[in-house]
Amino acid sequence: MAVMDEFKEEREALKHGTPKQKFTYFLDYYKWYVIIAVLVIAAGTYTIYEIVTKKDTAFYVCLLNTLELDAAEYNAGFIESTGIDTNEYQLIFDTDTWIDINSMDESTMANSQKLMAHLAAGELDVMITDSNSITNYTYQEDFYTMEELLSPEQYERYKPYFYYVDMVTLAKWHEYISNPDNLMLEIDFDFPDPRKPEEMESPVAVGIFLDESEALRDCYHFRSDDVVFSVFLNSSHTETALQYLEYLTQ
After folding, report:
1. Cβ pair 235, 125 in contact under 8 A
2. CA 159 to chain centre
3. N or C: which end of the chain has fewer CB within 10 A?
4. Is the pLDDT of residue 134 over 50?
């Protein structure tokens, strides 16, 4: 008997079957179609919801290699001080990015790619992290110089806390990482002390040590006490970044 004839006989017999028989037949022949349809509808609904309800980002802080302790109230205080409407905009304080340049494991690779993607898209405004963690980024020229960023009054106020890079060392660093052989090894490169511009050949300030920001340390755990604030060169919200600096150091 042909397959279609068998199918017709089954359908004809099913007309007089019990509800249980009809339900069993439905499961046998249509279960996966229904499941797939439900999944497609659910995914589409979620995507539409995310697009409709997603808020624009008014400020993005990357707290690299940092563990949040209890920062909700502290961050809320800053958000309130900016006057930004949180019904329309979001402010992000990201503590999910962990990178160890001397251990290129899967997690570090994924987080490095995430950070670079956000940076390339111009979504990042500020990085806060320990002095060792920020070194690689300061020597990639990712940040504003303090001379470019600050007013003369702010420059004098924060000058005792500046984080410096040496432009001569920067040139040597670029030469070092351009050698493919070095990328396969644990990094072995000496950077000058960022607190000692007098020992550098061509010092430029690109960050600020948050030595007196005790409230910040109460809210976050950093790898060391040498915590640095820097503003990304392609930040879209430098005014808010300076407000944040004022908040951190008030």
Report:
1. yes
2. 28
3. N
4. yes
- Three-class SS of residue 196? coil
Q: How confident is the model at residue 155 (pLDDT cuts 50, 70, 90)?
A: very high
Q: What is the three-class DSSP state of 99?
A: coil
**C-beta separation of 248 from 210 below 8 A:** yes
List the single range of 15-19, 96-100, 179-183, 217-221 with lowest mean pLDDT.
Answer: 15-19
d(CA 115, CA 123): 10
Tell me the C-alpha distance between 127 and 110, whole Å: 18
Q: Which two tokens stand for residue 142?
A: 């990712």
Q: CA nearest 228: which of 240, 215, 245?
A: 245
CA distances to 64, 76, 129 from 193, rounded to whole Å, are: 20, 34, 16
* Residue 249 clears pLDDT 90, i.e. is over it: yes
